Amino acid sequence: MRVLIVDDDPTIRMTLEGLLKKHDCEIYEADSGFKALDIIQSDQPPELIFMDWNMPGLSGVEVTTLVRETVAENQPYVIIISSNSDSEHVIKALSYGADDYIIKPIDGRFLNAKFAVAQRILGIQEKLRQTNLVLEKLAYYDELTGVLNRRAGNASFQVEMDRAIRKGQNVCIAMVDIDHFKKINDTFGHQAGDEVLRVFSRVLRQTMRPYDIVCRYGGEEFMLIAEINNKDEASDLFERVREAISTTQIRHANQTINITASFGVHVVIPRTDMILKSLVKKADEALYQAKSAGRNTVIISANLDESNMTEPGSVTD
């Protein structure tokens, strides 16, 4: 645990450091509120702060207020230290955002008890943060493949459109389908099918560019959104992805599974009033052509005048 001791009195800082040494913590010191803020705003901010109330320039409660107003996440646990034992003084410190209060002179046993409470609360907060990260991942990412789910892909569409408009680039929507996926399930089993989906998703992420959108649209169908300059660039991008998939061999239960995929791509000049559903429909039509042409191919359509692709006030499906 990273601990910051803030006090303009070096004797108090030394006393606190001596009392805290037996705990597994990394101790930092500051002799003013301004120096404390520099440490708090660093790349390795403290998790627990022992802060004197009365300091020249910037008091401990003023620093605490600034911390509560400016630190967006992972707020530190702040314990105010003061020689004033008046209950109104304690209440005031808590109202400024302090988590606890210690009265001088500092009793080592009392400090240890306060440290244990802070450690327990910070541990609970960290578990809660980790739980929220898991819930956020479940809300936006497909559990099996790890790529964005359909809901998150739809939400990313408008962000991608706005970015392309600012950069003056075109956008392409690609619908991708694993060829003969039902046959893979029937031949090798559903566990093999799940492994195919995982590997397929990994190949998509590795061959698409880092800023492109990859999402599982449903079943064995995926949606890709990419910024491109022209139709030829889209062709080069998705041919590269198609080839990477067709050369991938998947090992499952001592068997080798070869896969291919069909791509339907629609290229547009982005506008804020475009509807994702309509663009997906165009990409789906191109995907149908790719399957009709024998699969394992890329079919690209382009429409540089999307006036027929909009509906007032609607941007997603």
UniProtKB/TrEMBL annotation:
Keyword presence, Phosphoprotein: yes
Ranges where the GGDEF domain occurs: 169-303
Entries under InterPro entries matching the protein: CheY-like_superfamily (IPR011006), Diguanylate_Cyclase (IPR050469), GGDEF_dom (IPR000160), Nucleotide_cyclase (IPR029787), Rev_trsase/Diguanyl_cyclase (IPR043128), Sig_transdc_resp-reg_receiver (IPR001789)
GO cellular component, one term: plasma membrane
GO annotation terms (biological process): cell adhesion involved in single-species biofilm formation; negative regulation of bacterial-type flagellum-dependent cell motility; phosphorelay signal transduction system
Entry EC number(s): 2.7.7.65
Cofactor: Mg(2+)
CDD domains: GGDEF, REC_hyHK_CKI1_RcsC-like
Keyword Transcription: no
Reaction catalyzed: 2 GTP = 3',3'-c-di-GMP + 2 diphosphate
MF annotations from Gene Ontology: diguanylate cyclase activity
Keywords attached to this entry: Phosphoprotein
Residues found modified as 4-aspartylphosphate: D52
Span of domain Response regulatory: 2-119
Record Pfam families: GGDEF (PF00990), Response_reg (PF00072)
Protein name as it appears in the record: diguanylate cyclase
